[in-house]
Design goal:
The protein is of the alpha/beta class and 427 residues long. The chain contains nine helices and 26 strands. The longest helix is centred in the last third of the chain and has 16 residues. It is globular, with a radius of gyration of 22 Å. The structure holds dihydroflavine-adenine dinucleotide and nicotinamide-adenine-dinucleotide.
């Protein structure tokens, strides 16, 4: 048995939703496009899962956050796909792909063939077992990647009212979940191996600000170490985490956010792989010209960084790579190479920051670290290549993005230091 489509999107996450909207706007016909997703719901804005979805009051629930509301665009409900003749093959895992034959085989054994394939398989959460720790399948240990994980996390949180949680990992998931747990009146201990939180992006000074804010809300940080095992009760529930130095941290629940791996396995040996992702060119085309890669799974050349190949794990990149791939498929002669300014953001408690570019080179901090409006520029070879701002408004965020996009040349570092945000606003 089998079905055939002109266009197939493999994966039903953020990138899939934005690609579908772009296909429909570019006139894809009924029955030409299909999305295959292991998830049982239509594409949604994944960032909501660690923010609005976890709120104790008026939490966000589907259908409110289907794509593409995150970019203030149309909300694609299941009905939208029906009305546009786009087939949603949900709850269906693709178990193998053959790019030479242009076919995918689902776990149920169905063959789906395509003329053009967009791979949007995203990533999976790393498991503690991959670091030698056993028992993370306990009922009160939570990971967070998809809607099912988020629903489970809400249930576990609700069963821990006024209790304690240990958060493993000091990255995005760790920080956003710790904030959500606090908001749900759960006392949090964060454990991570680095010297400060968000080590992939934050400088020690920036991290210090957020850690101070978390501490003021009762969060306890245990830094520079990892857990080695869990202690369980007779029903298998985790009751404590044991750290490398033997410290025992009693807990009612655990949230784990220790990074991700891109879902490339279906294409290993078939497509070029780089930086842990499927390597694509400036039109998001892989080493097979009928196959495109977008979102977390794609490693693409970033013009701004001298066309260095990067794999970005952020929603803005997923949205824009998806739209760009579709433009390249539907109007190849009119589509230039992707020119992307990397953009990351987060919101926790009443804080909100944005970052543009790359965080390498000399750092210049600016602003009021006590008052909560501050930032940093990253300078490389005399030019601004990265910028961070906490507590900005739209005009200010646009200004820092602009100085990075232009790679503004700095003649006098002390002037940038002195003027801070104003330097971007008046450049
Ligand atoms: P995504 O993971 O969204 O989708 C992949 C899809 O492919 C899934 O539906 C999956 O089931 C499916 N799939 C995979 N293999 C399959 C197979 N073999 N067969 C069928 N289906 C398959 N970023 C940011 O910039 N700001 C933010 O605030 C946040 N917040 C945030 C919160 C949480 C909880 C997470 C997990 C992530 C974020 N992110 C984020 C990151 C952002 O969500 C991420 O970069 C995008 O979702 C990537 O979009 P993709 O479509 O590439 O993958
Ligand atoms: P991450 O890469 O941001 O952080 C991983 C963290 O894991 C590290 O900071 C480190 O502290 C910790 N770690 C690594 N090995 C460990 C070990 N053995 N034991 C304990 N801790 C260990 O990854 P994440 O926080 O898991 O986030 C997953 C994905 O979700 C990322 O792609 C991220 O970009 C995305 N996400 C993004 C946002 C956002 O952009 N606002 C929010 C949530 C999730």
């Amino acid at each position: 048995m089998g079905r055939a489509f002109v266009y197939v999107i493999l994966g039903g996450g953020v990138a899939a939703g934005y690609a579908a909207l772009e296909f429909s706007r570019r006139g894809v016909g009924p029955g030409e496009l299909c999305i295959i997703s292991e998830e049982t719901v239509a594409p949604y804005e994944r960032p909501a899962l660690s923010k609005g979805f976890l709120l104790p009051e008026a939490p966000a629930r589907l259908p409110a956050f289907h794509t593409c509301v995150g970019a203030n665009d149309e909300r694609l409900t299941p009905d939208w796909y029906k009305e546009h003749g786009i087939e949603l093959v949900l709850g269906t895992r693709v178990k193998s792909a053959d790019v030479r034959r242009k076919t995918l085989i689902t776990a149920m054994g169905e063959t789906i063939s395509y003329e053009v394939l967009i791979v949007a398989t995203g990533a999976r959460a790393l498991k503690l077992e991959e670091f030698g720790v056993k028992g993370s399948d306990a009922v009160n240990v939570c990971y967070l990647r998809n809607l099912a994980d988020a629903s489970r996390l809400v249930n576990v949180m609700q069963s821990c009212n006024d209790g304690n949680a240990v958060v493993i990992g000091g990255g995005y998931i760790g920080m956003e979940c710790a904030a959500a747990l606090v908001t749900n009146r759960i006392k949090v201990t964060m454990v991570f191996p680095e010297a400060h939180c968000m080590a992939r992006l934050f400088t020690p000074k920036i991290a210090d600000f957020y850690e101070g804010q978390y501490e003021s809300k009762g969060v306890n940080f245990i830094k520079g170490t990892v857990l080695t095992s869990f202690e369980n009760d007779s029903e298998g529930k985790v009751t404590a985490v044991i750290l490398k130095d033997g410290t025992r941290v009693p807990t009612d629940m655990v949230v784990v956010g220790i990074g991700i791996r891109a879902n490339t396995a279906l294409f290993d040996g078939q497509l070029a792989i780089e930086k842990g992702g499927i390597k694509v060119n400036g039109r998001m085309q892989t080493s097979n010209s009928s196959v495109y890669g977008v979102g977390d799974v794609a490693a693409f050349p970033v013009k701004l960084f001298g066309s260095d190949i990067r794999r970005l794990e952020h929603v803005d990149s997923a949205r824009k790579t998806a739209k760009h791939a579709v433009a390249g498929i539907m109007a190849p002669e009119k589509t230039a190479d992707f020119d992307y300014l990397p953009f990351f953001y987060s919101r926790v408690f009443s804080f909100s920051w944005q970052f543009y570019g790359d965080n390498v080179g000399q750092v210049i901090h600016y602003g009021d670290f006590l008052g909560g409006k501050f930032g940093a520029y990253w300078l490389d070879k005399g030019r601004i290549i990265g910028a961070f701002l906490e507590g900005g408004n739209r005009e200010e965020y646009e200004a820092i993005a602009k100085v990075v996009k232009r790679k503004t040349t700095i003649k006098d570092v002390s002037e940038v230091e002195r003027r801070g945000l104003d330097y971007a606003l008046r450049s």
